[in-house]
Amino acid sequence: MNRRLLTLLLLLPFHVLFAQKNLLTDFPKGYTPQEVGKRLAHRFVGGKHALHAGKWISYPETFNWNGSLKFAALTKDKELLKLLQDKFEPLFTTEKQLLPIMNHVDLNMFGSLPLELYQITKEKRYFELGMPYADTQWIVPEDASPQAKEWAEKGYSWQTRLWIDDMYMITIVQTQAYKVTKDRKYIDRAAKEMVLYLDELQRPNGLFYHAPDVPFYWGRGNGWMAAGMTELLRYLPKDNKDRPRILKGYLTMMKSLKEHQAPSGMWNQLIDDPQCWAETSGTAMFTYAMITGVKQGWLDKQEYAPVARKAWMAMVPYINENGAVREVCVGTNKKNDKQYYYDRPRNVGDYHGQAPYLWCTVALLEKM
């Protein structure tokens, strides 16, 4: 190839240069979703429980488990599926005390896991275990706070608190309940809740504050929002009155994320701060949302497939030889202090990061 032709090729836009290959299916060895998913899912099987407050199965573990199950089912890996079911079995017996109580968004989300198992196995005991977690998000306990009761009177979950994390925690279990019952009340109320959070927390630039009193665009927090909208839009009926508003919020966010992607392909701990460190869990959530958006037709393939591919190719090297994802921000409460987000510890193998990586493998493998 002569130098002039090589120069012309290098000047071509990324999507034109790779026009002859599918950016979301053709990957080099070591980067395929089959390879990555298998490494991460099998690592989870042998991992220890990650407990919430030392008592109950945590939301990061729940979502890692869900991702592993979806990967096993999609790839028809019966051995892996059995290992994951066997890991769950003690929660019916000897580990029953680890089942989360039903009084907080970070705990009720657990219901999404047995409901995922129900969809795969059709065993009714999973259904019976999971549904109360969805129902109790809208059943106000007697000792609920006055503010919680006010939210309920307006038709929202009494667990509402206007933290962006909630829009995955609430959405995932309500969407799962809709999928297994076909009762629209579950997905309709999740949509109503989503619009509340969009109106309160999304800024004109498409990104989200961590909370109304915390004006920072925290990466994983925005990731929960991106993934929550994605899950909801996948299953929300076309005639739902809130769908246009949610789709608008999603599209506005994706446009902003495209503009804030670092040259490396990653997104930062504080999305709009190019000096902040690259963070893997948020990056994986954004990538999942974009892959799904392209495949569902919500996003223009020519515009967003290159963005999603670039992110995936940047993400994979953060997985170490043990299948553990590096540079994962630890669990993070809200705080009106920019330095606080800069200083958050970074873990290796934290389920906050392992889970969305698995979601990406499933999204890449799914045929829409």
Automatic annotation (TrEMBL):
<dbReference type="InterPro" id="IPR012341">
    <property type="entry name" value="6hp_glycosidase-like_sf"/>
</dbReference>
<dbReference type="InterPro" id="IPR052043">
    <property type="entry name" value="PolySaccharide_Degr_Enz"/>
</dbReference>
<dbReference type="Pfam" id="PF07470">
    <property type="entry name" value="Glyco_hydro_88"/>
</dbReference>
<dbReference type="GO" id="GO:0005975">
    <property type="term" value="P:carbohydrate metabolic process"/>
</dbReference>
<keyword id="KW-0732">Signal</keyword>
<dbReference type="InterPro" id="IPR008928">
    <property type="entry name" value="6-hairpin_glycosidase_sf"/>
</dbReference>
<keyword id="KW-0378">Hydrolase</keyword>
<feature type="signal peptide">
    <location>
        <begin position="1"/>
        <end position="19"/>
    </location>
</feature>
<dbReference type="GO" id="GO:0016787">
    <property type="term" value="F:hydrolase activity"/>
</dbReference>
<protein>
    <submittedName>
        <fullName>Glycosyl hydrolase</fullName>
    </submittedName>
</protein>
<dbReference type="InterPro" id="IPR010905">
    <property type="entry name" value="Glyco_hydro_88"/>
</dbReference>
